[in-house]
Amino acid sequence: MEKPIYPSPYMRITQGFMMGTHADSYAIDDAGSDTGIDFIVAPFTGIIKKIYTADANEVWLESSEPVIYPDGTVDYMTMLFAHDNDISNLFVGKVIARGERFYEEGVAGNASGNHVHMECGKGKFTGSGWHKNNAGYWSINNGKNPTECLWVDDTITILDSYGYTFKRIEPEVVVPDTPLEDNTSIDTFPAVDDQVDSDNTNDKDNNVDSSEIVKPKLIFTCKSDDIYAIELKAGQKLYLE
Ligand SMILES: [Zn+2]
Fold it and tell me: How far is the CA of 15 from the centre of ligand 1 (A)?
């Protein structure tokens, strides 16, 4: 299951939620790395449910599957994006993969300076996707605090979080099944003839002809102290150096 990633790789939040034009909504504005036009990536794998070109080129993206919220709960998520100048490449029903560049900052809808306006909604796309809130602004249905929806990881450069704290996706620790996969390597075993001490070869008590020695083909190079188990059959020999 996916953890929705903060969609602007250069987080620079220029207006927070519940203030100004975001009164009575959990919208945030992000202006990215600089004053130019930065791209926005899909926070989760989803499908475009609605496009509204009569205002600020708003696009609603609904997750294809339930996602993991930072508090651990699991539900669908819908996000609303606004201000991209050109969304001619997008259409309702288009599927976007998590992390895929699909939207851009812009000034569509009389925005002051290139930025993207983003809102998170908990659950699937509902109704017309938005409603006029008590402050008179159109706001996504089931709006939810973005810090309770989105995650950050090492791909996100945080330039200005506006004082908000987003939960970080920790890299998954891979635990090897056996020490062999992690701590050892397999080398070709050198020819036994090169290894045999000449003094021992001439020892009369040693009645084993060197030609009878089965040459092992592989040997571990043990790179860390550990306990290894090996099954030997009667008569088999184990060589350690
Ligand atoms: Zn905004």
Answer: 7
Cβ atoms of 191 and 211 closer than 8 Å: no
Query: Collapsing DSSP states into helix, strand and coil, what is residue 162?
Result: coil
- Both structure tokens of 119: 């809102």
Q: Are residues 43 and 137 in the same domain?
A: yes
Domain count, the chain: 2
Are 55 and 84 part of one and the same domain? Answer: yes
- Asked if 216 and 143 sit in the same domain, the reply is no
| In a shared domain, residues 96 and 189 | no
106-163: per-residue pLDDT in tens? 999 989 899 999 999 999 999 999 999 999 999 999 999 999 999 999 999 999 999 9
Backbone angles phi, psi at 181, to 5 degrees: -75, -25
Best CA proximity match to 31, nearest among 76, 83, 101, 67? 83
List the chain residues with pLDDT less than 50: 196, 201
Q: Give the C-alpha distances (Å, rounded to integers) separating 110 from 85, 113, 148.
A: 10, 9, 29
The rounded Å distance from CA 35 to ligand 1 centre is 16
Enclosing domain of residue 68: 10-168
- Å from CA of 166 to ligand 1 middle: 19
Question: Would you state the pLDDT for residue 226?
Answer: 74
**Contact of 150 with 132, CB cutoff 8 Å:** no
With beta carbons less than 8 A apart as the criterion, state whether 26 and 143 touch.
yes
